[in-house]
TrEMBL record, chain A:
InterPro entries: Spore_V_AC, SpoVA. The lineage of its organism: Bacteria, Bacillati, Bacillota, Clostridia, Eubacteriales. Signal peptide: none annotated. The keyword Membrane applies. It holds the Pfam family SpoVAC_SpoVAEB. Keywords: Membrane, Transmembrane, Transmembrane helix. Residues 1-20 are annotated as: Disordered. The chain crosses the membrane at residues 36-60, 66-86, 93-111, 131-153. It comes from the Bacteria. This is SpoVA protein.
Automatic annotation (TrEMBL), chain B:
SUPFAM superfamilies: Thiolase-like. NCBIfam families: PRK08304.1 (NF006160), PRK12404.1 (NF009069), spore_V_AD (TIGR02845). The gene is spoVAD_1. The lineage of its organism: Bacteria, Bacillati, Bacillota, Clostridia, Eubacteriales. It comes from the Bacteria. GO terms for molecular function: acyltransferase activity. It holds the Pfam family SpoVAD. This is Stage V sporulation protein AD.
Length: 159, 334
């Protein structure tokens, strides 16, 4: 917790939070990093294999093979999410499964499955991007800002 | 009758003539599986939504309790029930099925003891002969509302707890055989400024401590009066904090009698449950299933259950509010 947030707390609250913190198990950060490194790496190795498969057997260029490779990884993730396996892998792997495209696919698939009971329009349609939405909004917005900066720098002759 | 500042003593000793506990798949694999009356392997219970499944859990627990008491629905004057879902719809909808005059409750995970205290009060004051108390929670329905979709792959920290899928019901009556509800302490809302919904144990521990202290102060009792003092759903993290906090405040509860329903309900090595169980059904199924069964057998005579509740909503959490908590204590004796 940041210090700024702590300032609002009364001394009793601060004292208790310190008291409680000393008795809480910490997130095993090093172990989580190691697991994330290997699982994330493994996903990339599999994706590399798929990409090479498309290049060797279907004569895609290296750049063009990226799209079908992403699609295959996404389909596998969505299937694992639907079968109820993905969340268990993710609890173990942490950032290893959430950072690659697998994480993004899982947010959309899991939200869609979850809200199926509220119907296809308000449920699935309305909630599909519940978790992925912010990523898209701020992803697109930051890309827009970066491109503006690039255009201005080019106009000034810096780039 | 009011005793001390915030406690009631029920002079007529209302009796829990029957109780029932229904659980889900993780509870079936937990340590208290034998104490449930009905266990479901399917979290959907054959329903179309998790919310409907939770309603079904309540209906089954209520019907089982009524059946065990050899009564009919018409014999019950009031139903007091609650759960965690928005506008407590599982409770209201289950009450529609039962057709018993209904008062809905919300005290988050403290609802079971809030309900039991009020039921005992209604019976003690002769405002009712038979009152049914029912509380439920459903893991997936709660996750969906409070956190992320069930299948979402976010890593939970070791302090996170697992919402119990289940329902517990108890029938409180002015006469009959069974454990008696002897006193209750209604808790204050305590907020220590914690705001992490993945660490409810630490947020709720001060509320439990406050109510426990109030209980012993009001009733002028020593902790050794009880055979077991069980908190509702502090889990392993909150239980340790509560124990140490009580020691710090000079109230020593012997370790062998101080326990927590969230620790008892699951096995220690059970995957996914992390710090232990939580949810309305945690204290409800453990008390109305496990503890009352032990009392009827006679190997437990004096029990104090302190059900703890975190009074947050998904919106209050997103608006960066801290988590206010409450705990209610009810003593059950043979």
């Amino acid at each position: 917790m940041s210090d700024k947030k702590k300032k609002k707390l009364s001394p009793t609250q601060q004292e208790y939070q310190k008291f409680a913190q000393d008795r809480e198990p910490k997130r095993p950060i090093v172990l989580n990093c190691v697991r994330a490194f290997f699982v994330g790496g493994l996903i990339c190795v599999i994706a590399q294999g798929i990409q090479m498969f498309f290049m060797t057997y279907y004569h895609f260029s290296q750049e063009n093979a990226g799209n079908p490779t992403g699609a295959v990884i996404i389909i596998i993730t969505v299937l694992l999410t639907g079968f109820g396996v993905f969340d268990h892998i993710a609890q173990w792997a942490g950032a290893g499964t959430i950072i690659p495209v697998t994480g993004f696919a899982n947010t959309i698939a899991s939200a869609s499955i979850e809200h199926r009971s509220e119907g296809f329009v308000l449920g699935v349609g309305g909630n599909m991007f519940k978790l992925a939405g912010p990523v898209i909004v701020y992803g697109v917005f930051s890309a827009f800002v970066v491109s503006l900066v690039v255009i201005m720098l080019r106009a000034l002759g810096v780039m | 009758m009011l005793h001390g500042h915030q406690s009631w003593i029920f002079d007529s000793k209302p009796t829990i003539i029957a109780s029932a506990a229904v659980g889900g798949p993780h509870e079936a694999r937990g340590s208290l599986a034998d104490d449930f009356d009905l266990l479901h392997e399917d979290i959907w219970l054959g329903q179309e939504s998790f919310e409907k499944a939770e309603r079904k859990l309540q209906e089954q627990a209520s019907e089982l309790a009524i059946k065990k008491a050899a009564l009919k629905k018409e014999d019950i004057q009031f139903l007091l029930s609650g759960d965690l879902i928005n506008q407590t719809v599982p409770s209201s909808f289950a009450a529609r099925t039962l057709g018993v005059p209904f008062l809905g409750l919300y005290g988050a995970c403290s609802t079971s003891m809030e309900g039991l205290a009020l039921a005992a009060q209604l019976v003690d004051s002769k405002f009712a002969k038979h009152v049914l108390v029912c509380t439920s929670s459903h893991n997936a329905a709660s996750e969906k509302q409070y956190r992320y979709p069930t299948e979402y792959g976010a890593q939970k920290p070791p302090t996170a707890q697992w919402t119990v899928t289940g329902a517990g019901a108890a029938l409180v009556s002015d006469q009959g055989e069974g454990p008696k509800v002897t006193s209750a302490t209604i808790g204050r809302v305590i907020d220590m400024g914690l705001s992490d919904p993945f660490n409810m144990g630490a947020a709720m521990a001060p509320a439990a401590v406050d109510t426990i202290e109030a209980h012993f102060r009001d009733l002028n009792r020593e902790p050794s009066y009880y055979d077991v003092i069980a908190t509702g759903d502090l889990g392993r993290v909150g239980h340790r904090i509560a124990g140490d906090l009580l020691k710090k405040h000079g109230l020593e509860i012997p370790e062998e009698i101080f326990t927590d329903c969230g620790i008892l309900i699951y096995k220690e090595d059970q995957p996914v449950v992390l710090a232990g169980g939580s949810g309305c059904a945690c204290a409800a199924t453990t008390t109305f299933g496990h503890f009352l069964k032990r009392m009827r057998k006679g190997d437990l005579k004096k029990l104090l259950v302190v059900a703890t509740g975190a009074l947050l909503s998904p919106m209050s959490f997103q608006q960066k509010e801290s988590i206010p908590c409450v705990a209610h204590a009810v003593s059950i004796e043979l």
